[in-house]
Sequence to fold (236 residues):
Amino acid sequence: MELERLTENLNLVRERISRAALSSGRSASDVTLVAVTKRTPVEWARHLLNAGQHNLGENYPQELWTKADSLLDQVQIQWHLIGHLQSNKLKRTLPLVHMIHGVDSLRLLAAIADLMPLAQNLQSLCLQVNVSEEESKHGWTEQSILAEADAIAELVLHKSLPLTGFMTIAGWGTDCQTARPAFVRLRGLAESFKARTGIALNDLSMGMSGDFEAAIAEGATHVRVGSALFEGLESP
Ligand SMILES: *Cc1c(COP(=O)(O)O)cnc(C)c1O
Fold:
């Protein structure tokens, strides 16, 4: 019964994504849903995979390792690390992930560059920018990412890093209206970064359960949705 609810929630979120995309003249296929399974049982992730939801996101490297281990038989899975990644966790994390959303310092980017041979499934890296400037969040500020743009670009070009975009968290518990300015700023910042470095940033990872429709209206290519998928379910 529980898992039926999960399927229903998934379908509902997908419908909301399609509607938001269409109403801003985009196609639903322009937006990737990353189902955030942090702190949920691995059976739920397995159920999502069976329902065709292959992009799964985790915040904590250790939780990702454990779940990846339990789901080794699921070859279609694409793991996204969306939380803070410490350099000492890179060796175990890099071989598993398809996309890292929260690269939050030049030092981490350099550490990833050194270990790229391990990153056999890695398709893309996003730099995390704290456009709403809440104390509790990791990432560059708008000023600091432009100040370090040349150093970032040099690393990306010399080490052939798959830098594809920016990521932000508008805020915790934000809704579409309160979050929208942060999304506008992230998009503008990606344009400034491109003008400065020549690196095209085609991915914008932004939007969570409370605000993903606004993010899609502002150009999100990846929405990271957790609680909306698990509404009404109770962990066993
Ligand atoms: C938990 C989390 C999400 C998902 O948030 P919900 O509001 O549950 O959809 C998205 N992004 C990050 C970085 C998170 O930590």
